[in-house]
Amino acid sequence: MNGVLSCYHEISARLEAANWLVPTLARLVFAAVLLVYFLNSGLTKLGDGTFGLFSPSAGAYAQIFPRQLEAAGYDPSALSIFHRLAVLGGTLSEFVLPVLIVLGLLTRLAALGMIGFVIVQSLTDFYGHGSALGAWFDRFADGTILDQRTLWLFLLCVLVIRGGGPLSLDRLLGKV
């Protein structure tokens, strides 16, 4: 039994010394699981033409402000400047923040921004679209809001705390 414990402690010490592994894997997992999700979500909000980012589609307003758009008779121009700026900011965030995380550039700041984005997204899904909240500590691991988004937030918290790791533009440009 002493040999098994000794081997366990040696492996544990080596893993503790590999502090570069966690942030690197966190960025890789983010890229594999969430990058395309957020980029595709951003694409659904683009308006027509070259400058579609700056002229979001009506669907963008329907996704972000469903009840307000309905109250405005589904006319985005009837919404306030606040709504327009929120849609523009949200759409831009869906493109910029995930790419920054994958590149490891301003990783902590980008991950913090994504945490805010996911919280707002989850509140919009629950209050605006009436999505099921789900529950923690139940037998179902696929509750869209509580279960999945909690895992997303944990992953992003790892990046806020640990940064982008050694294989990042942050490290290449100096300690950030």
UniProtKB/TrEMBL annotation:
InterPro entries named among the record's database cross-references: DoxX, DoxX-like_oxidoreductase
According to the lineage, what is the superkingdom? Bacteria
Membrane-spanning intervals of the chain: 20-39, 95-120, 151-169
Q: Which UniProt keywords apply?
A: Cell membrane, Membrane, Transmembrane, Transmembrane helix
Look up and give the organism this protein is from. Answer: Sulfitobacter aestuarii
Q: Output the lineage of the source organism.
A: Bacteria, Pseudomonadati, Pseudomonadota, Alphaproteobacteria, Rhodobacterales
Q: Which family does it belong to?
A: Belongs to the DoxX family.
List the protein's name.
DoxX family protein
Instruction: Say if the entry is tagged with keyword Membrane.
Output: yes
Specify where it is mainly localized.
Answer: membrane
**Where is this protein found?**
Cell membrane
Topology relative to the lipid bilayer, per the entry, is: Multi-pass membrane protein
